[in-house]
Design brief:
834 residues; five-stranded mixed sheet; 38% helix; four-stranded mixed sheet; 28 helices
């Protein structure tokens, strides 16, 4: 093997050797050019016609540029100094993905100190340096009254430095924007690796969008390209502003953008035009991929853009051209998160009902005076809490003989001596087995990440008593006891715990048990189980719930189960009245065939893999099909009729129980004055491995979790008698027992007004749930979407329209095999705060 030291130069070296001749060994003639001739010809390329699509220049005339500079170099927020500072000050720290920002605000909401720097991979160390610098520069008579953190490093910095509170970054950015432009209608923030969009109507956030797993098109995207061109980001910006024909590079992800840039270079595009094209691409990605803007009018009349990326004038100008709007970029665009956090600290400092100033008299006695009243414009933080939390330790500072409350932030020796250690562990408090990263600080405080619920953060915490329909339904769905070997006259039969079995298992278990089979369900889903079947997955683009099927089948085979029953179900029962049809999605309906074709183990002579087609909506045909498919087991028609009847009855009881629990959750909300989230998705989203602990995260935020099928039978505006669920009393006869359960065929319901063909069984429950949520106070809807689900391209838009019609916030969470819930937690906390 030969490993040349200059392998990367070999193509150029070969070209140089070829330049010494006038033809190659195949008779092709060519001419060699001098360096001056090459430079001249390259310069002439600019004047040649090109097929490369272009965008309008950022500044067609010098007058346009002068107007732009005049508008965007105003001082929106006054920047003061610490010199002469006196009284309470409020610290906000925004620990971003690549940078750390901090602002110190006085009681007049003026910034008197700020910092914007790279975190060098250690946000905590950067935060310590910031706090030390502020404390060393604060003049006598000034103090930090309250502190607040936001951003990705919020939890770590709040815990490590003992900041008073944290705030979700979307709310921090909104508060900052409202201060800059009262009556703001839209806030767009593009940072190093994230994007945020807030739509505001009459001072209320009614839509939130953030980029999910992919950070393509953010600030780091431009920085990477600038470095590849040998430019600083400042030089890159100036090149873009000088462009005359920006290249249209689309809005694809970084991987594909590289190929677009290379193609543009081959066609002679200048660095200026490529740089401007990339700035256009960042904005288009934000507008059409994240915000999903259909019309610029949706942004409203007062648009604030912020985040470090908008400090780039080329990006800002591209945004204005694409939206046909003149927007506001604050003079502190890169500090808006930290500014909003500081405003949050100030607001809560004034909003504490027990805040009192203590005057120390000459004789040593104390006199209390009431603090200024709480701000009326902000909702109380505990508006939905039944009981007040324990009061935290009060920190004070004495200034001019008056004792004031002060921030709990570390000072002096405690700050100098602060250290931390990090270890990894696996939580064993439940079946999720979350992989924890535990940071322990020198004062004994801990910060835990990786836990999907509050229990993983502190082993002493008990499981939340708030209703969680996902947890209930998972347990209820599989709460069946199989036959003993002695009673199982027809032997064992295995069922994979996957896809529609999270809806149909009670039906199939009851049917097969009635026929004398010992039903063996595969184990709980896990990433390890997923990896056991990964070799037989035919397509990487299929959704994660489908990929898990292979692992579940493998589990059954490894347990020695020779008969595996995994039916293709083309039609569900009619789950919602007045729909156009009730199909299962193509994956759910047909994936058993895919598994059979790609798992050789299922074709072994001693393995019986049953994947027949069934229509659950056709009760009469079901008996015929059971007799036909189980002829090998000598199942008689009488046995089939008995089994099918029992199966449909149990299916009805199962659905009734879930809806009973839904009413219990609504009653809990009423009794405890708390909010609820309808976590709407598919039946298999109740699998903890698929939902990654999102239901537990919602409960940890103090909200109740319902599922779409637990309330889809309820009508918009319907008055419910929840007496039975609140206390002893007369129950609503409609819900008293399964026998009185309102089957969809037993009542007349108005057909839902939709813009889509309502033909998919599980989706019809989404639409029905959305209509109910839009009319029920205290309920919000969050839709779960598995990557790779083609049908959700339609359902997500339809559900969003249903909620938008009633001015409800629509939240979509995309999930796959990656269990990082960073973006999901931001969305959920934002929804709670909205």
């Amino acid at each position: 093997t030969v490993v040349p030291t200059d392998a990367h130069l070999y193509v150029a070296y070969g070209s140089a050797l070829q330049a010494d001749t006038d033809s190659d060994d195949q008779g092709h003639h060519f001419k060699a050019y001098t360096c001056d001739e090459i430079l001249k010809r390259l310069d002439e390329l600019k004047n040649l016609p090109s097929n490369t699509p272009t965008m309008p220049p950022l500044f067609p005339t010098e007058a346009d540029r002068e107007d732009f500079n005049k508008r965007h170099h105003k001082e929106h927020i006054h920047i003061g100094t610490l010199e002469g500072a006196h009284g309470p000050h409020f610290l906000g720290i925004d620990a971003g993905s690549t940078t750390i920002k901090a602002t110190l605000v006085n009681d007049d909401r003026e910034i008197v100190w700020s910092s914007y720097a790279n975190n060098e991979g250690s946000p905590l160390t950067a935060a310590i340096n910031i706090v030390k610098k502020i404390q060393s520069e604060l003049p006598e008579g000034a103090w930090i009254a309250r502190s607040c953190a936001t951003g990705y490093g919020e939890g770590l910095i709040t815990t490590g430095l003992h900041l008073d509170e944290g705030v979700v970054e979307t709310m921090a950015h909104y508060r900052g924007a409202e201060m800059v432009s009262p009556g703001v209608t839209a806030v767009i923030d593009i940072g190093g690796q994230d994007m945020k969009y807030l739509a505001i109507t009459d001072g209320v956030i009614d839509s939130i969008a953030v980029n999910e797993a992919c950070s393509s098109g953010c600030g780091s995207f431009l920085q990477t390209f600038a470095m590849s061109m040998g430019l600083t980001i400042q030089e890159f910006t100036q090149k873009a502003l000088a462009s005359t024909h920006p290249v249209d590079l689309g809005s694809r992800c970084t991987v594909f953008m590289n190929s677009s840039v290379k193609q543009a270079q081959k066609e002679g595009a200048s660095i200026e035009d490529i740089a401007a094209g990339l700035c256009y691409s960042v904005v288009r990605n934000a507008l059409y991929k994240v915000i999903k803007l259909r019309d610029s009018g949706e942004l409203g009349d007062t648009v604030v853009v912020q985040g470090g990326t908008f400090l780039n004038d080329a990006v800002l100008r591209a945004f204005e051209l694409l939206t046909e709007r003149q927007v506001t970029r604050p003079n502190i665009a890169g500090l808006m998160g930290a500014f909003g956090a500081a405003l949050t600290a100030r607001m809560h400092y004034q909003d504490e009902a027990d805040h009192l100033d203590v005057v120390v008299k000459a004789d040593g006695s104390e006199e209390q005076s009431e603090a200024e009243p709480a701000l009326k414009s902000e909702p109380k933080a505990a508006a939905f809490k039944k009981t007040e939390p324990a009061k935290p330790e009060v920190h004070v500072v004495v200034v001019d003989g008056v004792t004031h409350t002060a921030s709990s932030i570390l000072t002096g020796d405690a700050l100098d001596n602060m250290s931390m250690t990090t270890e990894r562990d696996v939580c064993k408090l439940c079946q999720n087995h979350c992989k924890l990263t535990i940071t322990t600080f020198s004062d004994g405080s801990r910060f835990v990440t990786g836990n999907r619920c509050e229990r993983g953060g502190d082993a002493k915490k008990k499981r939340s008593d708030r209703p969680n329909l996902y947890d209930y339904k998972y347990k209820r769905c599989f709460a069946y006891r199989r036959l003993t070997d002695k009673k199982a006259t027809r032997g064992e039969i295995g069922i994979p715990r996957a896809l529609n079995m999270y809806e149909n298992y009670p039906f199939w278990f009851t049917l097969l048990t009635s026929l004398g089979f010992k039903v063996m369900i595969s184990g709980r889903s896990s990433h390890d189980l997923f990896e056991t079947g990964i070799e037989s997955i035919a397509s990487e683009n299929i959704c994660y719930p489908a990929k898990l099927v292979h692992g579940h089948i493998k589990w059954l085979i490894n347990k020695g189960i020779k008969t595996i029953f995994y039916p293709c179900v083309s039609h569900e029962e009619n789950l919602v009245p007045n729909t156009d049809n009730h199909y299962n999605c193509p994956v759910v309906a047909n994936y058993p065939l895919v598994v059979g074709a790609n798992m050789p183990e299922l074709r072994e002579d001693d393995v019986r893999y049953m994947h027949p087609y069934f229509n659950l909506a056709n009760h009469e045909l079901m008996v015929d099909r059971i007799v036909e498919e189980f002829a090998w087991a000598n199942v008689t028609r009488e046995e089939a009729e008995t089994a099918v009847k029992a199966a449909y009855a149990e299916d009805k009881v199962f659905k009734h129980d879930v809806q009973q629990e839904g009413l219990t959750a609504l009653a809990y909300m009423k009794e405890h004055n708390c909010r609820g989230i309808v976590l709407a998705g598919r039946p298999y989203h109740i699998d903890p491995e698929i939902n990654h602990g999102i239901p537990e995260t919602i409960c940890s935020l103090g909200m109740v979790v319902l599922s779409e099928d637990s309330i889809c039978e309820l009508q918009p505006g319907e008055k419910l008698n929840l007496t039975e669920f609140l206390s002893e009393g007369e129950a609503d006869p409609r819900f008293k027992n399964a026998a009185g359960f309102r089957h969809v065929g037993d009542r007349t319901v108005t057909k839902m007004p939709l813009r889509v063909t309502n033909q998919w069984a599980y989706h019809s429950r989404l639409y029905a749930a959305a209509h109910f949520v839009a009319s029920y106070p205290g309920l919000e809807l969050v839709q779960l979407n598995s990557f790779g689900c083609g049908l959700d391209a339609i359902t997500t838009d339809q559900v969003a329209e249903i909620l938008a019609d009633k001015a409800d916030v629509y939240t979509l969470l995309k999930i796959d095999e990656v269990s990082n819930l960073g973006a999901a937690k931001i969305r959920l906390r934002s929804l709670k705060a909205a």
